Amino acid sequence: MGAHDLDASVKRIAADIAAMETRGAAAIADAAADALRQQAKHSDAETPDAFRAELRAAARRLLETRPTAVSLPNALRYVLQRMNGDSVETLRRNTVAGAEEFRTRLDHAQADLGRVGANRLRDGDRIMTHCHSTDVLACVETAREQGKEVSAIVKETRPRNQGRLTAERLVELGVDVTLIVDSAARRYLNDVDHVLVGADAIAADGSVINKIGTSGLAVNARDRGTPIVVAAQTIKLDPDTMTGNLVEIETRDESEVIDRPDREAIGDISVENPAFDVTPPRYVDAIVTERGQFPPESIVALMRELFGEAVADPWIESRPSTEFGGDEQ
């Protein structure tokens, strides 16, 4: 393998990610770290500069496959941050060690997060959930393993009704579940001890990007004095997004909301179906990760620890506006 050549493993892994043969945040992150490990192990670069160039070329090739998947650049950033040394062998050793460390931490991340989140749940607590999050379920599962009784009010989460998946899994864990329509959430907030939601991404200022409806739920929870806790592994942290209002919100097909015959019967209307919204950090009480529990404003410090000092401080670089967030997307 000559300088700047990509290892066969990198090409294969990149192809699998691009074809969505490898999918899911954790699986993509694990595959990306393994690809850099393979590149480092098999490199026959003769100089440190050539070795670094090879690894960066591999990272670019991987990043091109799914540029909007937050876990992918996070895995690459974690490994490349640990690529240091004055010789090829030192660079190789440190890069391989960084990749293996990342994969080991990833392997234990959800269980570790579950233990952190379970500490917030007391025996007899009732939670409210939104959408479907395996990180949220990990918190509840650990609490149940600790012998705590937990009940849940589960929002259906229209239009795809992912809340029903959450309800099914909670029942399997021995949780007493009440399923409600989304618009009934405020009615029941006084009856719950925590709102517990997941995240698709978290910006450097602590803004939470999650399934549409999360932002409104958080506003209502704050008004009722109900704590809202976000459960998310650190691979969901997005150091490239300083504030949540910079996130481009995906819009899904209108067929999820209304079928063609009904649409035609109504007449000339527009249908919007945003998939996510942004919850400003002022509405979030805590973000639970495998590294511990953090207030939103401290997330940037965790990002720096994981991804390097290049992560900008949103509280210095860009003052948070009282107007940004999901309602303004």
Automatic annotation (TrEMBL):
<keyword id="KW-0119">Carbohydrate metabolism</keyword>
<dbReference type="InterPro" id="IPR005250">
    <property type="entry name" value="R15Pi"/>
</dbReference>
<dbReference type="InterPro" id="IPR042529">
    <property type="entry name" value="IF_2B-like_C"/>
</dbReference>
<dbReference type="GO" id="GO:0003743">
    <property type="term" value="F:translation initiation factor activity"/>
</dbReference>
<protein>
    <submittedName>
        <fullName>Translation initiation factor 2B subunit, eIF-2Balpha/beta/delta family</fullName>
    </submittedName>
</protein>
<comment type="similarity">
    <text>Belongs to the eIF-2B alpha/beta/delta subunits family. R15P isomerase subfamily.</text>
</comment>
<dbReference type="InterPro" id="IPR027363">
    <property type="entry name" value="M1Pi_N"/>
</dbReference>
<dbReference type="InterPro" id="IPR011559">
    <property type="entry name" value="Initiation_fac_2B_a/b/d"/>
</dbReference>
<dbReference type="InterPro" id="IPR000649">
    <property type="entry name" value="IF-2B-related"/>
</dbReference>
<keyword id="KW-0396">Initiation factor</keyword>
<dbReference type="Pfam" id="PF01008">
    <property type="entry name" value="IF-2B"/>
</dbReference>
<keyword id="KW-0413">Isomerase</keyword>
<dbReference type="InterPro" id="IPR037171">
    <property type="entry name" value="NagB/RpiA_transferase-like"/>
</dbReference>
<keyword id="KW-0648">Protein biosynthesis</keyword>
<dbReference type="GO" id="GO:0046523">
    <property type="term" value="F:S-methyl-5-thioribose-1-phosphate isomerase activity"/>
</dbReference>
<dbReference type="GO" id="GO:0019509">
    <property type="term" value="P:L-methionine salvage from methylthioadenosine"/>
</dbReference>
<dbReference type="GO" id="GO:0043917">
    <property type="term" value="F:ribose 1,5-bisphosphate isomerase activity"/>
</dbReference>
